[in-house]
Specification:
By secondary structure, this protein is of the alpha+beta class. It contains 8 helices and 14 strands. The chain has 3 domains: 134 residues, no CATH class; 69 residues; 90 residues. The strands form 3 sheets. Strands 2, 3, 5, 6, 7, 8, 13 and 14 form an 8-stranded antiparallel β-sheet that branches.
Length: 307
Amino acid sequence: MRAFLLLLFVAVTASAQDERCARYPEDAFSPTMITEELAARFVPRRMLVMKAFWRSGTDAVLVEDPREVRAMFDLLAGNDDLAHSCGYHWAIVFEDASRQIVQHFHNEHCQPYRRFDDEIQTLLRTYFASVNHAPTHFLIEVELDPKAEPEAIARALERDGRRVLFLQHPDGRLPSLKIRKTARGLEPRKVDEKVWAAVEAKAKEYTLAAIEPFVARDGARIFEAPRSMGSQSGGGVYESHVEATIVFPLAFDESRLRAEDGQFERPKSWMVTVASPVRFSKELEQTLRNASPFVLKAAAVETRSIE
């Protein structure tokens, strides 16, 4: 029935802005995290609605009806919402068949959408009410040995109605190296964004050049792409800092690294989120431990409301 209502909302409503959206200037809106480009290659198979940041608790709603999941995804995909910095109350998590995750965050007090605003707000309120009063699942954090392979551990834990979601990217379990490079140029006498952009581009070039040998020799891959870490100027010199993170296979020997290569880290564990149809208990933790020798411990998701 809920899937039918979702489809009905989408079919009946056009893309007109409502009065709430009309109160804001056009430049107040920005694309949601589900961009048109992402939507073109991402096919959601399930959706999880959970509390986040301003809201606390382990209760959640898991949706696996393909029409219902698709309807919510399409309302958000390629849409724009009001950019703000006052935090969020909810996370809407979409997962595809390869277990890739796309998350959308929603502030229930101040987040209108440029298109389908009434429909989105109404549907989300329905889901939020379900989380608060009739949750379908409860969230559990499971800590794992880094040697646990993602797909194998998902198969081991997904029994009795449980679902595993990689809310933290599974590559986070791998040895990593954070590489930071700096480029310098002459500080322009007046504001010149082209000069600043050129220096930042040079810093990114240095960073990629530092990554290349690790990729070719050690089988490393980029985990966090080169990104600006700020800039500074003084004494006629302008500096731009860029940082990237690469990950290595588990068997990588870090003794070959030099101090100037970057900041190395070998995680001792990694986390997955399990959506369980029953609340967490010590008995359930033991069940999860019995499912795989790589399970180190499990606990109900600990979130804290700051509202």
